[in-house]
């Protein structure tokens, strides 16, 4: 083979190598940019309590298990004034909750104490009550949850999404590090108040269609000024059908919405305490990787200058 011909082959190989490197680098950069723009999604299931909507709770939790997506369960410890820890008095509920407490998909949070309103102006269990009363009430609920399930909750959710600064202070003093309520409560979507992290609910699943859920979610994902966490609120009662049945269409809606979120490739699923974060697949940028093109590990393959 002549020297001129060999030189042309070497030049061609160098050109191919440079082009492949540029494609791989661009593809890697695209993935990095996608990962940097990912948002967190937290599912918040309120009103988890003994003797209420047990089949619905199981059905919605099973969706999270099947999809490997975590959820924060807001537990109501003491629904009425009867004596004793009511979490221990419903055997079916107690055994079920104990069976999932070690599953890292489930965060056990505290959703007030009785979930009974103490004000006629705006429903709330805590708003306007003295600090000492709020502290004592929250502590009772926390202790009941610890006794029943062996975990100390670190996320507090005030019933009716209505509370005040004394509620925040009491929760902080009792060791809670996360707090979720409505934006209107403190005019905070995501931030710190009284030394505790506050994250407001962003979207409520109840009475929504998949199309409307997608629309609200896309607005969040496409807003460059939005916070990094999207809190989706629902209740076991949202999955109730007629005559005490479970509404399979509502259960399917939750599953379909999770599939949609995964399909965006732009979210990570987590809980308020961030004990577990699961990834959604990153959407392909349309640029094939070296392994997909068959070039991986073999740049220059067939470009060797053979003697002959």
Write a compact overview of the structure shown.
The chain is α/β, with parallel strands linked by helices and 308 residues long.
How far the N terminus sits from the C terminus, by CA atoms, comes to 7 Å
Radius of gyration: 26 Å
Mean pLDDT: 85
- Portion in beta strands: 15-25%
Helical fraction equals 25-40%
Shape: globular
**Major sheet characteristics:** 7 strands, mixed
Annotation field: number of helices:
9
User: How many runs of DSSP E, i.e. beta strands?
Assistant: 11
Q: Ranges with pLDDT <50 over ≥5 residues?
A: 15-36, 282-308
State the secondary-structure class.
Answer: alpha/beta
N to C succession of SSEs: HEHEHEHEHEHEEEHEHEEH
Features:
308 residues, alpha/beta, seven-stranded mixed beta sheet, four-stranded mixed beta sheet, 9 helices, 11 strands, 40% helix, disordered C terminus
Protein architecture, described:
Helix content is 40%, strand content 16%. It contains nine helices and eleven strands. It has helices at residues 3-36, 54-67, 91-100, 131-149, 165-173, 183-186, 210-221, 248-264, 290-293; strands at 39-48, 71-75, 106-110, 155-156, 178-181, 190-193, 196-200, 203-204, 229-234, 267-270, 277-279. Strands 1, 2, 3, 8, 9, 10 and 11 form a seven-stranded mixed sheet that branches. It is globular, with a radius of gyration of 26 Å. Residues 15-36 and 282-308 have low confidence and may be disordered.
């Amino acid at each position: 083979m002549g020297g001129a011909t060999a030189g042309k082959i070497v030049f061609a190989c160098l050109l191919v190598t440079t082009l492949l490197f540029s494609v791989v680098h661009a593809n890697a950069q695209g993935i990095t940019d996608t990962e940097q723009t990912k948002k967190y999604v937290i599912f918040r299931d309120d009103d988890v309590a003994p003797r209420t909507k047990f089949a619905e709770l199981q059905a919605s939790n099973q969706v999270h298990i099947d999809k490997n997506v975590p959820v924060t369960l807001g537990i109501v410890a003491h629904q009425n004034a009867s004596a004793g820890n009511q979490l221990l008095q419903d055997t079916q509920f107690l055994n079920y909750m104990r069976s999932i407490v070690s599953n890292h998909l489930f965060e056990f949070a505290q959703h007030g104490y009785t979930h009974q309103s103490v004000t006629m102006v705006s429903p709330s269990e805590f708003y306007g009550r003295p600090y000492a009363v709020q502290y004592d009430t929250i502590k009772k609920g926390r202790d009941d949850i610890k006794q029943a399930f062996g975990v100390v909750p670190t996320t507090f959710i005030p019933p009716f999404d209505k509370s005040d600064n004394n509620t925040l202070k009491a929760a902080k003093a009792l060791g809670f590090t996360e707090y979720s309520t409505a934006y209107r409560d403190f005019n905070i979507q995501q931030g710190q108040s009284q030394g505790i992290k506050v994250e407001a609910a962003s979207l409520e699943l109840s009475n929504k269609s998949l199309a409307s859920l997608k629309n609200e979610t896309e607005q969040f994902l496409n807003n460059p000024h939005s916070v990094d966490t999207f809190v989706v609120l629902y209740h076991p009662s949202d999955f109730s059908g007629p005559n005490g049945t479970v509404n399979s269409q509502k259960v399917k809606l939750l599953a379909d919405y999770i599939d949609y979120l995964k399909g965006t490739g732009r979210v990570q699923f987590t809980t308020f305490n961030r004990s577990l974060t699961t990834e959604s697949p990153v959407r392909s940028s349309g640029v094939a990787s070296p392994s997909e093109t068959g070039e991986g590990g073999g740049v220059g393959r067939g470009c060797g200058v053979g003697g002959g």
